[in-house]
Specification:
Blueprint (H helix, E strand, L loop, with lengths): L26 H20 L9 H16 L4 H12 L1 H12 L2 H15 L8 H14 L6 E5 L5 E5 L8 H11 L28 H16 L16 H21 L1 H20 L21 H6 L13
Antiparallel strand pairs: 1-2
Amino acid sequence: AGDVDDDAEKWPAAAQLQGSGLLGQNLFIRSICRDAIKTAERGIVVEDAWPEIHNAAEYRRRLLMRAAKGLQTSDARYAEVRARIKVDEDFVRIIGKWVVDRLPHARGPVRLAALDHIAVFQLGVEDGCIRRVKYLLDSETYVYPGHWEKDEAGEPVWIVKGHQAYLNTAIIQILRATFFSSQNALGHRHMKEYTSSHPTRLEPELTVQLVALAATGIHAALDCWRDGNYIKRKNEKFDGETYKTVYERHIVNLIKIRTDHANFFHSLMSEIYVKVVYVFSFNIPIKIIDTEYDSQRYDCLTKREQDSRKCPGCARCHRVR
């Protein structure tokens, strides 16, 4: 219970807990935890937004073992901590919690940003809102831009274009607000991960994981309006037990697009990248970007500006797109 280290005397000083909380620990435990946190946060970008749901104990141990292994070449005392991580479940539970507890802080803002950006769906109020929310959640067409019409029975239908999946402006705005709001934001810290999935077209793409997480945030925000009136749930967790299955459906959908339509998938994810990352970095108003992606539209900077601001490439600077 708590952070009490009942077995401290069995281990070298480097592998002993000191008081409670990460900041109270020795350099070796702090460094291992901080490297593990970086790995966990990177995982949200490129692997899984809720990796701790199914086997939290093993996930914590794996993160900590990897971090300790990476550090032990610099000082043998990291190996002493790693030895304890390998066999002491209570130790892993205590220090692993400091790592895994950071994940909700990375995910939570997605849902909060979605609450601010679902106005695009013009939900209305009371019964009209209930019907529109139900349609969007049941069909999961909220990933598309669209407009409302009515079917023969008078029920609302969100009319979409099939080639614009995951291009709803709410998704773009959520990603910008949560992962790319500054150079220090989580998404910006992993720019090297945004590589092309296409064998010959080299434009960077945003990751499937981030796009799926933003879409899941919209689903969670729409849930707040399910009863026709906004239910204030901003303090609730963006709970993986509730939304992991929604997230996984979006992952499957995006991977299917990549498998079945490689060219379209590349254009889609590259367009999202431009709207989220490039547009933010260069302060280009999002409204000028057409849904039909055209790199020529961004030939707006001098070569000096492109070089100094790390332009992702366009015709003027003759970089491969």
